[in-house]
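Hey, I was hoping to borrow your eyes for a little while. I've been staring at a protein lately and its backbone has me curious. You're getting the sequence in one-letter code plus the fold written as tokens. Would you mind checking whether the tokens look sensible for this chain? Here's the protein in full, and shout if anything looks odd to you:
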Amino acid sequence: MTSTFNRRELLAAGGAVIAFAGGGASAFALGSAGVPAGAIVVNALGGLSNPNVEPSERKEASGWTSTDAVIDRRVIDDARASGLTAVNITLGHVFGPNEPFEQTVREIAHWDAVARRYPNDLVKIESAGDILRAKRENRIGLIYGFQNTTMLGSDPSRADVFANLGVRIVQLTYNPANAVGDGSMAPENRGLTPFGREVVERLNANRVMVDLSHSGEQTCLEAARISKQPISINHTGCRALTDLPRNKTDAELRLVAERGGFVGIYFMPFLNPTSKATADDVVAHIEHAVNVCGEDYVGIGTDGGITTIDDLNAYKAKIAKEITDRRAAGMGAKGENPDTLPFVIDLRGPSQFHDLADRLRRRGHSEARIEKILGVNFVAYAKRVWGA
């Protein structure tokens, strides 16, 4: 399988070497260690927020939404220090009692305002060329994405509305079943519904990425087959290594790659049967995905942020309650336990991408392959779906 992406164009987008700063992190000599100098790093699903600061006011009475993310100088400095070029941030209704359409429109408007507030630091991404521009201008690209389709209601034409507002990625399901298809925790493992096929067609028409993270196997396989454009699984692990529903089978991974799609490996507890994953697990799942898909179709989608949690003990109590609440709402997944953390303990903070690059390097992966995994492959996929 050969990538259609011109690697020289991507490398030419690299500006000055990024100095490691903020958060008390030690310096990296980028080019001899860590993220290669000039490389693009795209987190296909992640967060951008300071987890140590509570929002000044909660925008939605029913709970946390993306409008509660605290963007401050530490967050921006940490993102730059990590080497991050662009990140798919989750906007809109995932679960809960809020009115999905209105809430989602408000969140899009909120993040447009955030980007305007930091014009020298943040930029909204709507094409593959925008990612390259973010790199040239040393800004962090914000890719607007959904992790559910509840905001569409029963009207597939709402996909047009959201595409026009700059949403570039739509994940079809969360863990349970919805009107589009079955999520990974739906026991029936059915495929797409007739409405779901309409939604895929509408997303294709708008050149919006169809993301099958969190989906059931049949939903994923059917979407990959009927989609007129390649689909993605932006944050997942490999079921062959850890048999949990949130991970994808080799059949899913292979079909997505054969159709020219993209697979992002997450930094999540589902990478290990104990639900306590390590950096070694991340590398193992990346390597398995490369073996199944080929090196041109695998990247990263950490499903986490960058800024380090300062008080980890307090956070453990908070996340235990959150996992209990998710289970009660029917939104949790097998492998989420009150004593596990939603990140990899030895691959987090502003050093996470540098550490990953070093680990891959020590495993014998070439610099070209490391750059593909860190961001080249996502940009190539974005060109195939969004255009240049």
Remarks:
- Strands lie at 42-46, 86-90, 122-124, 140-146, 167-171, 209-211, 232-236, 262-265, 298-300.
- The radius of gyration is 19 Å.
- The chain has a mean pLDDT of 89.
- DSSP finds twelve helices and nine strands in the chain.
